[in-house]
Amino acid sequence: MLLRTDPFRELDRLTQQFTGANGTWSRPAPMPLDAYRAGDEYVIHFDLPGVDPDAIDVDVERNMLTVKAERRPHPQAEDVKWELVERPLGVFSRQVMLSDTLDPEGITADYDQGVLTLRIPVAEKAKPRKVAVGRSGARKQIRA
User: Fold this and answer.
1) What's the average model confidence in pLDDT over 91-104?
2) Lateral strand order in the sheet of 90-97
3) Which positions fall inside the SHSP domain (predicted)?
C-alpha cells in the first residue's frame, strides 16, 4: 500500500521539476544519456527503464542520430485502482548530432536491463596515422 503525501510538497516538487532551480523553464529528461569515447569508438547509454526492446527505434539521417522509444501502460485488471502514477508514458525522442569523424554505418545497438547502448566507431579517415618520411637524393635544378 502506498501512502499519500502532502499535496503541497508534491506541488513544490513538480514546480522545481519543470522550472529548474534557477526559475527557467525546463522539461525533465525522459531519456537521460551518458556519452564517452573508449578507444576507437564512442559509446552512448540511454536510460529506458520499462521500455520493451521492440518499442525502440534508432535512426541515422546524415549526421543526426534519433532514438525513439515508447513506454506503454501496463495492462490493468478491473479491480486495480492506481494510487500514484509518476513514470511518464508515451513516445520519447532524443537526438544527437554526430560529428563527421564518426562512422554511422558501423553503429551497433544493445539493450540490457533498461539501458540502450549505442557504439559508434571512429571513421578510418579520422584515426591517427603515421606518415612515412622518405629520403630524397640530390636535387636537380631546372633551368629556364
Assistant:
1) 90
2) 56-61, 64-71, 90-97
3) 24-136
